Amino acid sequence: MTRILLRNKLDDCIAAWQKAGFSVFAPVRQHEMSSFGEVQKASDMAFDLVLPERTIKDHFFPQTEPLIKYKIGKQQIDSETMTPPDRKRVFFGVRPCDASGLAIDDPLFGWDYKDDYWFRRRDNSVIVTIVCTEADDFCMCTSVKLSPESDKGADVMLRPLANGAGWQVEAVSERGTALLETIPSLLQENSEPTAPVPQVAEKFDLEKVMEWLASKENFESQFWKDISLRCVGCGSCTFLCPTCHCFDIQDEGDTYAGIRRKNWDSCSFSLFTMHTSGHNPRNTQSTRWRQRIMHKFNYYRGKFGVNSCSGCGRCTRQCPVDMGITETLQAISNLPR
Amino acid sequence: MGIQEQYRSEAAALLSSGEVKLVIGFGEGSTADRRRPLFARTPEEAQKFVLDAACIANLSTYLVTEGLLSDGKKVAVFLKPDGIRSVNILISEAQLKPDQVVILGYAIDKAEITALEGRNISDFSLGEEIRSHTPPPHILQEAERIEEMNPAERFEFWKAHFSKCIKCYACRQVCPMCYCRRCIVDVNQPQWVSTSSHTLGNFEWNIVRAFHLAGRCAACGACDRACPVNIPLRLVNYRMGKEVIDAFDYCAGENSSQKPVLASFKQDDPETFIL
Based on the domain organization, do A211 and A298 belong to the same domain? Predict the structure, then answer.
């Protein structure tokens, strides 16, 4: 016997969590875009999405974030540190790839300096994932050794019931157990079968890819130039990626008063590594695309022991010229050895 | 022989004779209904070209890639009328030399695809077609709906859409008319336009782009299709284009000898906007 949550109890569930002090976020469709947004009732949620267009990352590492307010006077300098709101949040209906993305980024934000902006939000959030019942042509979680039922990054994992009436509920962390304790009367014992998990075919051989990337002689390979020829250099793939985490610090205002902000930055942009001198060590699109792949499947792994990709496939799904990680890694794994 | 085979062999002939150094066309994409830009430098690579009704991207954007044409050699490119229109605009703005571009033209009407006569830009006369061209009904309907709004409603409409912008600049990068080597938003000494992607910053970016494209847009829809957050950029550019037609009786890209409308002056220009 396992516990289940019925779909028709979802409104009560949201109310119970709100009563316990949580704001509830879920996939929503708004203004012709799907993303995570705050919901008040079950009918606000968009359940029919394979994956929202925007990632859950937006709510932990927003595209622009005020850090410090400053004012420079004749006699003194006033500054005020701006911290993110301390509210407790439940993210309901997260796909396993997006939840994994958060777990993949944790070591980065906590490595030499503990990023308060990230961890304050992480510590106050409970991630409720829903195992996938559908995958599209771009899904590639299995290729990066995750799966549509991975519990990485999840606090509670829901498995859809085969009859569509609700979800089997399982707490996978202490935080998840605590969340379920706020809704004991809404869960019931049941042995309904769960819906089958989709088969997501492996699209490339990750071991072969990592081996090729690790070989220094391939760094200057013609491969990089050929594969990235059509890249137009926008930041769509990086900004829609659940693990891309590069940012830039900008002062907005004037010399005497303003706000210091942390804004998303992208290795696809020609200014990304531009030096003040005007020299740019990555002055072509091919060297920038190589950086993106090397960072995700070589450098990040070297530093944190995990690849910086959770296989959501958004990079390809949304690319205006149909590029993406899948094609590049497929091409690498098919290279003659 | 179908158009695909015809253009494959023509591309191969252009490459083997050395007339062009590169052919830019389409290849298979990552799914059955996707096509992706494909660059052929050898006759063998030209055999991979695909040309069918799914080839909707405007490949002229690659013609302004930095350094591509600086060696004086020629490039051939697969173009629909909107791409040819883009080439006209680029030539009129002195960004391309007419003789450096060989056009493999085609038109799509519903699922039908036909080859266009002519290989040099001067072979194509788009004037009338562009003038009489009306946007698809769904764009007209959307445009009318916005036109009927009062200013406050219209502001809310655009605020909702621009708030979604993440400043990935996909709209700019896929646009053949956005050829500036350093876009004003990337000028950072000083940083004239904030990089922040908050609502105000997003308004700044989208309004800057709309103004820079007024009277220059080829209406190919590349920006609209590229936008990962689905901002209806088609409506912005349609409206700006309409404004220029109404004010100056000017339609960008009718031919390559036009003078750019906002960079030229006539004594009888209306000056209704000057107070």
Answer: yes
Domain ranges of chain B: 3-124, 132-263
* A286 at interface of B, judged by CB pairs closer than 8 A: no
3-class secondary structure, A145: coil
Of the three residues A190, A224, A245, the one that is the final residue of a domain is A190
Alpha-carbon distance of B166 to B163, in angstroms, equals 8
pLDDT in tens, chain A (337 residues): 699 999 999 999 999 999 999 999 999 999 999 999 999 999 999 999 999 999 999 999 999 999 999 999 999 999 999 988 889 999 999 999 999 999 999 999 999 999 999 999 999 999 999 999 999 999 999 999 999 999 999 999 999 999 999 999 999 999 999 999 999 999 999 999 999 999 999 999 999 999 999 999 999 999 999 999 999 999 999 999 999 999 999 999 888 999 999 999 999 999 999 998 989 999 999 999 999 999 999 999 999 999 999 999 999 999 999 999 999 999 999 999 8
Q: What is the dihedral of CA B14, B16, B22, B27, to 10 degrees?
A: 90
Q: Which residue has the tokens 């875009």?
A: A33
Reply yes or no: is the peptide bond before residue A85 cis, omega within 30 of 0.
no
Indicate if A20 and A145 belong to the same structural domain: yes
Same domain, A220 and A138: no
- The number of domains in chain A is 2
Other CB atoms within 10 Å distance of the CB of residue B270: 11
Q: Look up the ipTM and state it.
A: 0.94
Are B173 and A234 a contacting pair at CB < 8 A?
Answer: yes
Q: Smallest Cβ distance to B29: which of A252, A264, A322?
A: A322
Residue in B with minimal Cα distance to A62? B197
Q: Which of A235, A263, A316 sits opposite B196 (nearest CB)?
A: A263
**Residue that is last in its domain, among A190, A223, A244:** A190
Q: Which amino acid is at A320?
A: P
Any B CB within 8 A of A242 CB: no
Residue type, B141: Q
Judging contacts by C-beta atoms under 8 Å, the chain A residues touching residue B145 are: none
A166 and A217 together in one domain: no
Note whether A31 and A146 are same-domain residues. yes
Residues in chain B: 275
Interface test with A, best of B62, B161, B166 (most A CBs within 10 A): B166
Choose among A185, A187, A132: nearest CA to A154: A132
Residues A103 and A127 in one domain: yes
Q: Are residues A158 and A212 in the same domain?
A: no
Strands (E), chain B: 22-28, 35-40, 75-79, 101-109, 112-115
Range of the domain at A39: 2-190
Regarding whether A275 and A241 lie in a shared domain, the answer is yes
**Long-range contacts at B144-147 (CB < 8 A, ≥ 24 apart):** B146/B235, B146/B239
The nearest CA of chain A is from the CA of B235 a distance in Å of 14
